[in-house]
Amino acid sequence: MSSPRPSIDANTALFLDFDGTLADLAPRPDAVHVPTSLIDTLLLLQQVLQGALAIVSGRPIAQLDALLAPLRAPAAGVHGVERRSADGYVWHLAAPSLDRVEATARALQAEVPALLIERKPGAVALHYRQAPELAQHCFDAMSAAVRESSGLTLLHGKMVLEVKPAIATKGHAIQAYLREPPFLGRRPLFAGDDVTDEAGFQAVQAEGGETIKVGEGETVASHRMADPGSLRHWLAECAARLAP
Ligand SMILES: O=P(O)(O)OC[C@H]1O[C@H](O[C@H]2O[C@H](CO)[C@@H](O)[C@H](O)[C@H]2O)[C@H](O)[C@@H](O)[C@@H]1O
Q: Which GO MF terms does the UniProt record name (predicted)?
Protein backbone atom coordinates (compact mmCIF):
# COMPACT_ATOMS: atom_id res chain seq x y z
CA MET A 1 0.00 0.00 0.00
CA SER A 2 1.47 3.41 -0.98
CA SER A 3 1.42 6.26 1.51
CA PRO A 4 1.04 9.52 -0.50
CA ARG A 5 -2.45 11.00 -0.29
CA PRO A 6 -4.79 10.06 -3.12
CA SER A 7 -5.99 12.92 -5.25
CA ILE A 8 -9.10 14.01 -7.09
CA ASP A 9 -8.64 16.37 -10.01
CA ALA A 10 -10.86 17.62 -12.83
CA ASN A 11 -10.07 14.45 -14.85
CA THR A 12 -11.05 11.94 -12.16
CA ALA A 13 -13.83 9.37 -12.59
CA LEU A 14 -14.99 8.99 -9.01
CA PHE A 15 -16.59 5.75 -7.78
CA LEU A 16 -17.86 5.55 -4.20
CA ASP A 17 -19.22 2.66 -2.16
CA PHE A 18 -21.99 3.59 0.26
CA ASP A 19 -22.26 1.62 3.55
CA GLY A 20 -19.13 1.80 5.69
CA THR A 21 -17.52 4.18 3.18
CA LEU A 22 -19.72 7.27 2.73
CA ALA A 23 -22.04 6.40 5.61
CA ASP A 24 -21.16 5.04 9.04
CA LEU A 25 -22.40 1.53 9.71
CA ALA A 26 -25.67 1.34 11.65
CA PRO A 27 -27.40 -1.48 13.56
CA ARG A 28 -29.87 -2.00 10.71
CA PRO A 29 -29.87 -1.05 7.01
CA ASP A 30 -32.81 1.34 7.53
CA ALA A 31 -31.10 3.07 10.48
CA VAL A 32 -28.25 4.51 8.43
CA HIS A 33 -27.71 8.28 8.70
CA VAL A 34 -26.55 10.43 5.79
CA PRO A 35 -25.19 13.84 6.86
CA THR A 36 -26.57 16.74 4.83
CA SER A 37 -23.00 17.98 4.44
CA LEU A 38 -22.12 14.75 2.60
CA ILE A 39 -24.88 15.30 0.05
CA ASP A 40 -23.70 18.89 -0.47
CA THR A 41 -20.16 17.59 -1.05
CA LEU A 42 -21.32 14.97 -3.55
CA LEU A 43 -23.44 17.51 -5.45
CA LEU A 44 -20.41 19.80 -5.72
CA LEU A 45 -18.13 16.96 -6.83
CA GLN A 46 -20.69 15.87 -9.42
CA GLN A 47 -20.59 19.40 -10.80
CA VAL A 48 -16.80 19.84 -10.88
CA LEU A 49 -16.30 16.34 -12.36
CA GLN A 50 -18.89 17.07 -15.05
CA GLY A 51 -21.04 14.16 -13.92
CA ALA A 52 -18.24 11.59 -13.59
CA LEU A 53 -19.27 10.43 -10.12
CA ALA A 54 -21.03 7.11 -9.52
CA ILE A 55 -22.22 5.26 -6.43
CA VAL A 56 -21.26 1.56 -6.51
CA SER A 57 -23.10 -0.34 -3.81
CA GLY A 58 -24.71 -3.54 -2.63
CA ARG A 59 -27.91 -1.58 -2.02
CA PRO A 60 -30.58 -1.28 -4.72
CA ILE A 61 -30.48 1.94 -6.76
CA ALA A 62 -33.90 2.99 -5.42
CA GLN A 63 -32.55 2.97 -1.85
CA LEU A 64 -29.45 4.93 -2.85
CA ASP A 65 -31.61 7.57 -4.55
CA ALA A 66 -33.79 7.90 -1.46
CA LEU A 67 -30.85 8.10 0.95
CA LEU A 68 -28.88 10.60 -1.13
CA ALA A 69 -31.71 12.82 -2.44
CA PRO A 70 -31.59 15.32 -4.04
CA LEU A 71 -28.42 13.80 -5.54
CA ARG A 72 -29.31 11.52 -8.44
CA ALA A 73 -26.05 10.10 -9.70
CA PRO A 74 -25.13 7.22 -11.97
CA ALA A 75 -25.38 4.21 -9.67
CA ALA A 76 -24.56 0.52 -9.72
CA GLY A 77 -26.83 -1.29 -7.26
CA VAL A 78 -26.88 -4.81 -5.83
CA HIS A 79 -23.16 -5.26 -6.58
CA GLY A 80 -23.73 -4.53 -10.27
CA VAL A 81 -26.97 -6.47 -10.84
CA GLU A 82 -28.49 -3.12 -11.81
CA ARG A 83 -26.60 -0.16 -13.23
CA ARG A 84 -27.86 3.29 -14.17
CA SER A 85 -25.74 5.07 -16.75
CA ALA A 86 -25.25 8.84 -16.80
CA ASP A 87 -28.02 9.16 -19.44
CA GLY A 88 -30.50 7.54 -17.02
CA TYR A 89 -30.74 4.16 -18.76
CA VAL A 90 -30.88 1.29 -16.25
CA TRP A 91 -29.23 -2.02 -17.15
CA HIS A 92 -30.35 -5.21 -15.38
CA LEU A 93 -28.42 -8.47 -15.30
CA ALA A 94 -30.61 -11.55 -15.58
CA ALA A 95 -30.62 -13.26 -12.18
CA PRO A 96 -30.74 -17.05 -11.78
CA SER A 97 -33.42 -18.40 -9.46
CA LEU A 98 -32.98 -17.36 -5.84
CA ASP A 99 -35.87 -19.54 -4.59
CA ARG A 100 -33.70 -22.09 -2.77
CA VAL A 101 -31.59 -19.39 -1.15
CA GLU A 102 -34.57 -17.27 -0.11
CA ALA A 103 -36.33 -20.31 1.38
CA THR A 104 -33.21 -21.08 3.42
CA ALA A 105 -32.94 -17.51 4.67
CA ARG A 106 -36.62 -17.47 5.64
CA ALA A 107 -36.28 -20.80 7.49
CA LEU A 108 -33.35 -19.37 9.47
CA GLN A 109 -35.32 -16.23 10.27
CA ALA A 110 -38.29 -18.31 11.41
CA GLU A 111 -35.95 -19.91 13.97
CA VAL A 112 -34.37 -16.59 14.99
CA PRO A 113 -36.46 -13.45 14.32
CA ALA A 114 -33.45 -11.21 15.06
CA LEU A 115 -32.08 -12.20 11.66
CA LEU A 116 -33.00 -9.70 8.95
CA ILE A 117 -33.65 -10.51 5.29
CA GLU A 118 -33.35 -8.05 2.44
CA ARG A 119 -34.91 -9.31 -0.79
CA LYS A 120 -33.32 -7.11 -3.44
CA PRO A 121 -33.65 -7.14 -7.23
CA GLY A 122 -31.56 -10.21 -8.13
CA ALA A 123 -30.13 -10.88 -4.67
CA VAL A 124 -30.92 -11.97 -1.13
CA ALA A 125 -29.10 -10.61 1.93
CA LEU A 126 -29.26 -12.24 5.36
CA HIS A 127 -28.12 -9.87 8.13
CA TYR A 128 -26.98 -11.37 11.45
CA ARG A 129 -25.75 -8.14 13.15
CA GLN A 130 -28.44 -8.60 15.85
CA ALA A 131 -27.50 -12.28 16.35
CA PRO A 132 -23.72 -12.47 15.75
CA GLU A 133 -23.41 -15.82 17.51
CA LEU A 134 -25.26 -17.35 14.54
CA ALA A 135 -22.66 -16.27 11.96
CA GLN A 136 -21.27 -19.76 11.30
CA HIS A 137 -24.69 -21.45 11.34
CA CYS A 138 -26.05 -18.93 8.83
CA PHE A 139 -22.92 -19.18 6.68
CA ASP A 140 -23.13 -22.97 6.52
CA ALA A 141 -26.83 -22.97 5.62
CA MET A 142 -26.56 -20.23 2.99
CA SER A 143 -23.43 -21.83 1.48
CA ALA A 144 -25.30 -25.12 1.10
CA ALA A 145 -28.23 -23.33 -0.56
CA VAL A 146 -25.84 -21.65 -3.01
CA ARG A 147 -24.22 -25.01 -3.85
CA GLU A 148 -27.69 -26.40 -4.61
CA SER A 149 -28.45 -23.46 -6.93
CA SER A 150 -26.70 -22.48 -10.13
CA GLY A 151 -25.07 -19.26 -11.27
CA LEU A 152 -25.03 -17.75 -7.78
CA THR A 153 -22.27 -16.78 -5.40
CA LEU A 154 -22.09 -15.92 -1.71
CA LEU A 155 -20.49 -12.66 -0.51
CA HIS A 156 -19.61 -12.48 3.17
CA GLY A 157 -19.84 -8.78 4.01
CA LYS A 158 -20.02 -6.97 7.34
CA MET A 159 -22.40 -9.08 9.45
CA VAL A 160 -24.24 -9.99 6.25
CA LEU A 161 -24.37 -12.93 3.86
CA GLU A 162 -25.39 -11.84 0.37
CA VAL A 163 -26.27 -14.17 -2.47
CA LYS A 164 -26.13 -12.64 -5.94
CA PRO A 165 -25.50 -13.71 -9.54
CA ALA A 166 -21.87 -14.80 -9.91
CA ILE A 167 -21.44 -12.60 -12.98
CA ALA A 168 -22.37 -9.39 -11.11
CA THR A 169 -19.38 -7.65 -9.52
CA LYS A 170 -18.49 -4.08 -8.67
CA GLY A 171 -15.44 -4.51 -10.90
CA HIS A 172 -17.59 -5.23 -13.96
CA ALA A 173 -19.86 -2.27 -13.14
CA ILE A 174 -16.89 0.12 -12.92
CA GLN A 175 -15.41 -1.25 -16.16
CA ALA A 176 -18.75 -0.61 -17.89
CA TYR A 177 -18.82 3.00 -16.66
CA LEU A 178 -15.28 3.57 -17.90
CA ARG A 179 -16.43 2.71 -21.44
CA GLU A 180 -19.16 5.39 -21.34
CA PRO A 181 -19.31 9.19 -21.13
CA PRO A 182 -18.68 11.10 -18.94
CA PHE A 183 -16.34 8.49 -17.35
CA LEU A 184 -14.59 7.50 -20.60
CA GLY A 185 -10.96 8.69 -20.77
CA ARG A 186 -10.80 9.72 -17.11
CA ARG A 187 -8.57 8.29 -14.38
CA PRO A 188 -10.68 6.22 -11.98
CA LEU A 189 -10.63 6.44 -8.21
CA PHE A 190 -12.69 4.04 -6.08
CA ALA A 191 -13.23 4.12 -2.33
CA GLY A 192 -14.74 1.14 -0.49
CA ASP A 193 -14.60 -0.58 2.87
CA ASP A 194 -15.52 -4.22 2.50
CA VAL A 195 -14.33 -7.47 0.94
CA THR A 196 -17.11 -6.92 -1.60
CA ASP A 197 -15.18 -3.87 -2.86
CA GLU A 198 -11.99 -5.72 -3.67
CA ALA A 199 -13.18 -6.57 -7.22
CA GLY A 200 -13.71 -2.85 -7.77
CA PHE A 201 -10.23 -2.05 -6.46
CA GLN A 202 -8.71 -4.56 -8.86
CA ALA A 203 -10.62 -3.18 -11.86
CA VAL A 204 -9.61 0.40 -11.06
CA GLN A 205 -5.95 -0.47 -10.50
CA ALA A 206 -5.88 -2.38 -13.81
CA GLU A 207 -6.88 0.95 -15.43
CA GLY A 208 -4.08 2.82 -13.65
CA GLY A 209 -6.40 4.41 -11.10
CA GLU A 210 -6.23 4.95 -7.36
CA THR A 211 -8.06 3.00 -4.67
CA ILE A 212 -8.90 3.78 -1.04
CA LYS A 213 -9.75 1.19 1.58
CA VAL A 214 -11.82 2.68 4.39
CA GLY A 215 -11.18 1.01 7.75
CA GLU A 216 -9.25 -2.10 8.69
CA GLY A 217 -8.75 -5.38 6.88
CA GLU A 218 -6.62 -6.89 4.15
CA THR A 219 -6.90 -5.17 0.80
CA VAL A 220 -5.29 -4.67 -2.57
CA ALA A 221 -6.14 -0.94 -2.35
CA SER A 222 -3.34 1.58 -2.72
CA HIS A 223 -4.47 3.94 0.07
CA ARG A 224 -6.28 3.69 3.36
CA MET A 225 -8.48 6.00 5.41
CA ALA A 226 -9.47 5.27 8.98
CA ASP A 227 -13.25 5.55 8.78
CA PRO A 228 -16.16 7.08 6.80
CA GLY A 229 -15.76 10.38 8.68
CA SER A 230 -12.18 10.69 7.41
CA LEU A 231 -13.28 9.95 3.86
CA ARG A 232 -16.13 12.49 4.07
CA HIS A 233 -13.72 15.13 5.36
CA TRP A 234 -11.25 14.44 2.55
CA LEU A 235 -14.00 14.52 -0.11
CA ALA A 236 -15.19 17.89 1.23
CA GLU A 237 -11.63 19.25 1.05
CA CYS A 238 -11.26 18.04 -2.54
CA ALA A 239 -14.63 19.52 -3.55
CA ALA A 240 -13.74 22.90 -2.01
CA ARG A 241 -10.36 22.93 -3.77
CA LEU A 242 -11.86 22.10 -7.18
CA ALA A 243 -14.92 24.34 -6.93
CA PRO A 244 -14.92 27.34 -9.24
O1 LIG B 1 -21.73 -1.99 -1.04
P2 LIG B 1 -22.20 -1.22 0.15
O3 LIG B 1 -22.75 0.13 -0.22
O4 LIG B 1 -21.16 -1.15 1.22
O5 LIG B 1 -23.43 -2.06 0.72
C6 LIG B 1 -23.18 -3.32 1.36
C7 LIG B 1 -24.41 -3.69 2.17
O8 LIG B 1 -24.64 -2.61 3.05
C9 LIG B 1 -25.80 -2.66 3.89
O10 LIG B 1 -25.51 -3.50 4.96
C11 LIG B 1 -24.44 -3.03 5.76
O12 LIG B 1 -24.80 -1.75 6.32
C13 LIG B 1 -25.88 -1.76 7.27
C14 LIG B 1 -26.15 -0.32 7.69
O15 LIG B 1 -25.00 0.27 8.20
C16 LIG B 1 -25.50 -2.67 8.44
O17 LIG B 1 -26.58 -2.73 9.38
C18 LIG B 1 -25.18 -4.07 7.92
O19 LIG B 1 -24.74 -4.90 8.99
C20 LIG B 1 -24.08 -4.01 6.86
O21 LIG B 1 -23.84 -5.29 6.29
C22 LIG B 1 -27.04 -3.03 3.12
O23 LIG B 1 -28.09 -3.33 3.99
C24 LIG B 1 -26.82 -4.16 2.13
O25 LIG B 1 -27.98 -4.28 1.30
C26 LIG B 1 -25.62 -3.86 1.28
O27 LIG B 1 -25.41 -4.88 0.33
A: metal ion binding; trehalose-phosphatase activity
Does residue 126 sit within a domain? yes
Catalytic residue list contains 140: no
Residue at 136 is within a domain: yes
Out of 125, 145, 165, a domain closes at 165
3-state per-residue secondary structure call for 51-114: CCEEEECCCCHHHHHHHHCCCCCCEEEHHHCEEECCCCCEEECCCCCCHHHHHHHHHHHHHCCC
**Whether residues 29 and 67 fall in one domain:** yes
Q: Is ipTM over 0.95?
A: yes
- The verdict on pTM exceeding 0.80 is yes
Residue 125, ligand 1, Cβ within 6 A = yes
What distance in Å separates the CA atoms of residue 49 and residue 53, rounded to the nearest whole number?
A: 7
Q: What is the CATH number of the domain that holds 103?
A: 3.30.70.1020
165 pocket-lining for ligand 1 (C-beta < 6 Å): no
| Residue 29 alpha carbon to ligand 1 centre in Å | 6
- Kindly report, residue by residue over 162-182, the tens digit of the pLDDT: 999 999 999 999 999 999 999
Atom 19 of ligand 1, nearest CA residue: 159
In a domain, 180, yes or no: yes
Annotated active-site residue in 9, 17, 99, 227? 17
